[in-house]
Structures are given as structure tokens and as C-alpha cells.
Amino acid sequence: MVRVVVVDDEPMVCGFLRTILGSAADIEVVAEAHDGAAGVEAVLSHRPDVVLMDLRMPGMDGIAAIEQLARRVDAPPIVVLTTFDADQYVLRALRAGASGFLVKSTPPEDLIGLVRVAAEGHTVLSPAAARRLIAASTDGLSARDRARERVAQLTEREAEVLAGLGEGLSNAQIAARLYLSEATVKGYVSRMLDKLECANRTQAGLLAQEAGVVAP
């Protein structure tokens, strides 16, 4: 079972998600919360496989909740729920440790599959929205310079693996491209995340695009 915690200040949204996800035999919404602080408590209590997190909520907002949870070594994938009218908040959430984001208008038939993808540890990003976010993240020259400084500490092979993450490739796809074993790529990814101080593959992929390792 894929166990999900939903954090949103609108009970109607929580009810909608519970109904849609509950229609799948392999997904269960184990808890819902209506602000960031309650969301953190729900995640720590229920240990879900995926968290769906709204950003703008009363009290502790979604970004602060993501930052708290992402510090934990056992943090589950956190997928941002957005109305897609505030790119800067989504970008901040990804940098804070979110694993991706879903637009609240995502068709119900797609939502179940995307939650399964997130539970497997893959990034969940809408392609069109991702392009807008990357464009926003690379507007400032100083931000690109800082990203390039961080990437410069990588070895040539690590930089090649980072490029694969920037393109959204899986470990298996990167391994095939570089003629390495999947286990070797997994090791490179782990060491690279430590070097770059990135919480997850999504953050590393964004950094690769900010640094110009791959095109947005």
C-alpha cells in the first residue's frame, strides 16, 4: 500500500483527494491536516510513503513544514500542491526539499499514477510548469554563478551524472548512457547530493539547470 498524508487548509480539497486516491486499491490516505504544524505531526505519527503539501496555509506554511521534514533522514517524498499562480513559492519549496509538485487541477485519472511515481522516489513535475520554474531560477546571473561554484567541486564523472539528473533521467537511464552499473550510479548520486548539500534528486536537477550543465 502507498500510504499518503494530505496537508491542505481547505477541507474540500482534502476530501476530494481522499475520495480520488481512496478509489485505488493500493493507495490509502492515512491522515489529513489543515496547517503546516499539524502536517508535520501527522507525518511523524503515521510515517507515510508520500506527503501532498499545500504551500499557503495559516500558521506554519507549507515551506516551513517542508524544511522541518526534509531535515530528517527518513523524510518521505513531499509533493507540493499548487494552484500554479505563485511560481516563486513553488521554487522555494523545491529548494527546501520538496520532491516535486502537482497542480490542483490535475485530472483525477492522472493523480493516482503520479502519487505512485512519487512513492517510488521519482520526481513529480508538470513539464510546462517546470520550464517556467527553471526560467525563473536562472534569471539572475549571481544565482547562476553560485550554482556553478557548487558544481565546480564535482569530478567529471559526477558532473555527467548530475547532467542526467538535470534531464530527469532515472539511475538506470544514466547507467546506460555512461556504461556504468545502476549500483555505481546510485553511489555517485549519493555522494554528489552530499557534496552539493542537496536534499534530493529534484534539488540536484534544478541546480544542474541553474548552473547551465543542461539547458532548461
UniProtKB/TrEMBL annotation:
Which CDD domains does the annotation name?
LuxR_C_like, REC_NarL-like
Q: Does this UniProt record's set of keywords contain 4Fe-4S?
A: no
Q: Which InterPro entries match?
A: CheY-like_superfamily (IPR011006), NreC/VraR/RcsB-like_REC (IPR058245), Sig_transdc_resp-reg_C-effctor (IPR016032), Sig_transdc_resp-reg_receiver (IPR001789), Tscrpt_reg_LuxR_C (IPR000792), WalR-like (IPR039420)
- Which PROSITE patterns does this one have? HTH_LUXR_1 (PS00622), HTH_LUXR_2 (PS50043), RESPONSE_REGULATORY (PS50110)
Residues found modified as 4-aspartylphosphate: D54
State the Pfam families in the record.
Answer: GerE (PF00196), Response_reg (PF00072)
Q: What is this protein called?
A: Response regulator
